[in-house]
Amino acid sequence: KQWYQRRVRGDTVSRLFIMRYALLLHVFLLLLSPARGCKECCPYLNPRGHTRYTSPGHSFFNGCVVCTCISRDLQLCPLAACPDMCTVRNKSGVTGFVKVGRRRYKVWGEEEECGRVCRCVKVRSERTRLLCSKKCIRR
Question: How far apart are CA 74 and CA 54, in angstroms?
Fold first, then answer.
């Protein structure tokens, strides 16, 4: 019995050590990520429509083209036509591009206090638009 109890106790200690180590590593990585504490980082939309951040000097994909972050208010993006994309703004006020398709996005207008669930659809052969629900989503 004593050998069995020691073995179980040793496994418990090692599991707790691993869990604490993993938690500390996770907290450390969160503190180092550009989204935390970086006042000059550039916000952009990921493919799911959520806000992500990149440091000055790094590049990011805005849904249409690859842009370079200069400062929070200045991103260099080449001029390009994005025929199968719609422009959207999320609740954080970050603008980006989304593909035509079935995926739904929470989109906020410039002067609206609530958002709507929308998807990007092709209207004609060369045009796209957002098809949105009438139901309002609060911030």
Answer: 12
Q: Alpha carbon of 86 to those of 11, 34, 69, 108: distances in Å?
A: 53, 27, 22, 13
CA 19 remoteness from chain centre? 27
Can you tell me the distance from the alpha carbon of 137 to that of 133, in angstroms, rounded to the nearest whole number? 10
Residue 116 has which token pair? 């709507």
What residues contact 47, with CB distance under 8 A and at least 6 apart? 63, 98
Sign of CA dihedral 91, 95, 99, 100: positive
Q: Whole-angstrom Cα distance, residue 49 to residue 95?
A: 9
Give residue-wise pLDDT tens across range 70-110: 888 888 888 888 888 888 888 888 888 888 888 888 888 76
